[in-house]
Specification:
Length: 1009
Amino acid sequence: MRSLQGEIEQRGSRIFELVDKNPESLFSKAGFYQRLMTLSMRDEQLKLQLFRFVDVLPSLRTSGEIVEHLQEYFAGAPDSRKLSEFLGAGIRLVRIVPFISGPILRWNVSEMARQFIAGRNPNDVMRTLRKRRTQNIGFTVDLLGEAVVSEAEADEYAARYLDLLEGLARETKDWTDPLGKNSELFPVVNLSVKISALYSQLNPADPADAISHLVPKLRPLLRRAREVGAFINFDMESYAHKNTTLELFKTLFTEEEFKDWPHAGIVIQAYLRDSEADLRGLIEWSRSRGTRFAVRLVKGAYWDYETAKSRQNGWGCPVYLQKPASDANFETLTRLLLENESVVTSAFGSHNVRSIAHAQALADELGIDRSRFEFQLLYGMAGPIKRALVEMGYRVREYCPVGELLPGMSYLVRRLLENTSNEGFLRAKFSENVPAEELLRDPCEILRRSRNGVLPPSNATINMTTTTPKTQPGAPYENAPLTNFALPENQKKMRAALDEQRKQFGRKVPLTINGEKIWTDKMFSSVNPSQPDQIVGYAAEAGIPEAERAVAAARAAFEKWRRTSFEERCQLLERVAEILDRRRFELSALEVFEVGKPWAEGDGDIREAIDFCTFYARKMRLIGRPRLTQNVPGEESYQHYWPRGVALVIAPWNFPMAILCGMVSAALVTGNTVIMKPSEQSVIIGAMLMEIYEEAGVPPGVLNFLNGKGSVIGAHMVDHREVDLIAFTGSREVGLWIWESAGKTREGQRELKRVICEMGGKNAMIVDSDADLDEAIVDSTYSAFGFQGQKCSALSRLIVLEENYDRVMERLLGAASSVRVGNPEEPGIVVGPVIDEAAYRRILDYIEVGKSEATLAYQAKDVPPHGYFIPPTIFSGVKPNMRIAREEIFGPVLSVIKVRDLDEAIEVANGTDYALTGGFFSRSPDNIERVKAQLEAGNVYINRPCTGAIVGRHPFGGFKMSGGGTKAGGEDYLLNFLIPRVVTENVARHGLAPEKTPEYRDEFLWPKK
Ligand SMILES: Cc1cc2nc3c(=O)[nH]c(=O)nc-3n(C[C@H](O)[C@H](O)[C@H](O)COP(=O)(O)OP(=O)(O)OC[C@H]3O[C@@H](n4cnc5c(N)ncnc54)[C@H](O)[C@@H]3O)c2cc1C
């Protein structure tokens, strides 16, 4: 008897034989597509540009625009000869008759898309399906356009699905099963659905909300599918939505109505490390349900996305990193499926002959008839393999996307990437002619032989804990990971932390001066803005005597602290980071209650605080030692830094931990002593930071915690002659006053006061005429309304080019009306309450101003009646000189300004007093370059939201009336807290100079030995 490997080789060779008998190449369409593939595989950089150009093309309206983009993308391309070959007539005609070349290119791209998209609409696709029927190939139809930004779009999509189902059922009612055997398992009509297309507000942290919205949308489709004898498959998308998709599937098909319906299927992605556990869970579920179901086993379409996303967020990567690991896991799961054939019907979704041959051989070994499972392949790919499988008597179904080119673009680009992937089977077989025996090798064997090739256990749990990375000296800085709320264990931890915090409501916190806990007769209450009758805590309130004591304590502690080695100070910050990390859920939960932060925003704030500590510790080590300025014989000059003295830190409530901790940590690590005054609205979080610093071992007096009214103690200390440095983040009004007041020198003052001042913004986002609206709308909506618009970086002016205006407005208003507003204790809430009653009234006043100046284009209706909830509001017809376009509102209010062209857009964007953040959505390389150069903002963001700066990655801070030009989380931030000093010594004696001068000298650093 032959081994399984022998059987696989035999079957694989047979498939190859049949493939070679029908020698249609994978890259069968000659011309444009053929050339695109060839060029892309030759040059990665060019591939990127080519695919980007293909991506933007369908959204360009005129020939002129097409030609301009063509020139922008490819001017100066290194392989210009090849490029003009590729573009053929297109490029030659550009210069001669541009109006002809545009349509030619557009035609080429839509022809290429037709290779992968089976039809533009349900009627059109029937032609393809009929043709395939004659070839004994079945179908599953997928409706393109899953990027919905609003519930209106999602509802429209659901309705189109229902129509599609009706049409397919009608047109195929007399079609019969191609194999004529076990046909009850394989209905003719098969639909593939993506859940992200049916609910625009999917939030991985809140599967229950997603399910409660998706179940009623899917029921009518399932009901109808059942009536007409069709099959429904749930496609699988990114990892963030995997658990929700699985949960939804189980929920729906356990309902009484669908419990005994076998024609439901779901995708399992073998590239996921936890796919085996998921599949086992499904099989177990199916046994208790008592009805069979189906699984389409694939490797997975989002590998690049998942690896990039997890790296960006510092998460463990959910996908295998070695291609043979995905292949091997595909085989493990094939076995699991076939061994459970009694409850699960398998569809193997692969173009890889090894994976296919393995399924065939294993099914035979287990005695499963070939009519009881199927192979599924994508439309437009691997035609010869499909024909070979049909010829071998297997059941083949083709995945047929339907839709227009524009909504189908992301699908098309995924296919182009798949076909040109270095790792892919299709490229290896059909383009690089890798020999059959190589292609049929056992992936486990390949892994064993690879240098470090150990296949991680496929049921390994993914380590996605939120442990702060310990960056080794010299290694690149690594941010702490965000909490991945897609993981159920993190959802549970957050819920538990919220419960725990609720129990702590009403706690009392003292002042801390010189290490002493001080209670005063005045207590200050901090309330939950979602429910103002809930008191989160009480804080002792300082008056002038306590402020005086704090200044004296900080001054007294300074001499010793400045002499403490910078290494010790760095270690203090690192201990603080560790404690923040340990108490992460607790602190995020506290933010939900004290300042109304949605879950992910609260977590982001704690993460940023951790990052500030680790980043500044690292930077201090780099600048802490006296360093040689220039190497000249006979003289040594060393520059180093001294702390400034006593620092007063005044922080806002909107990033209650991060900004406070960032300013405090920078001041402490540089050797200053600190009086920290948190915002009155987030005083409990401030007290937690004091507690954490004490646990980490900050000496008495070095950090003092003072809560009180800015107008009383804040003002007193700003003017105090013993205060040398003020680090302030907050409103323009207070910031300007501090700037001015600190400029006056008081009697007995020893230093010129240094002010680090970060204020507000009136941030603009420009939407170009070729922008990708799927992204622009989602990101603008989030930038404007996330955390109720209370970030200094938040978007408040959307500047739209008139060509795009109507489409942008239609989608923007839809998106805004779908955003979830409510109490942020619920995980999926985007817009919570504003901070307090004063803010609430001020924002409502601005809305009235807006109504009198411009047109109210949208205002949410259903906001909770209690608490400080402001409905997300959009004004259109806004002119640049209106108050709502000039003044900072700091709430969920967005002004839309229509402009003629990019010149006007930039002029309007730059035409305010502020320069904090700014953004641009465009796919024109030239326009992007222009905006990068001309937009007046401290942080310019292209094709992404304008909020969410990350320490070290996006040093943050603005200029003009947004701030003094400092960059929190940046390379040179610490220098603001220091005084540079240079020590020069003539080391030559009678012309005799030492041969070597050390780069560093630590002798004149404290402590002295
Ligand atoms: C009919 C059908 C339906 C599909 N539906 C879905 C779906 O709903 N959801 C979904 O996500 N995918 C889906 N896919 C899968 C996806 O679109 C790709 O076609 C498939 O992953 C390619 O695998 P292959 O076996 O054909 O090719 P192969 O060339 O053998 O495998 C390529 C795959 O290997 C994986 N891979 C690539 N590089 C690495 C690496 N360095 N380390 C580890 N793994 C790597 C990736 O998944 C890549 O797609 C579907 C595929 C088909 C055929």
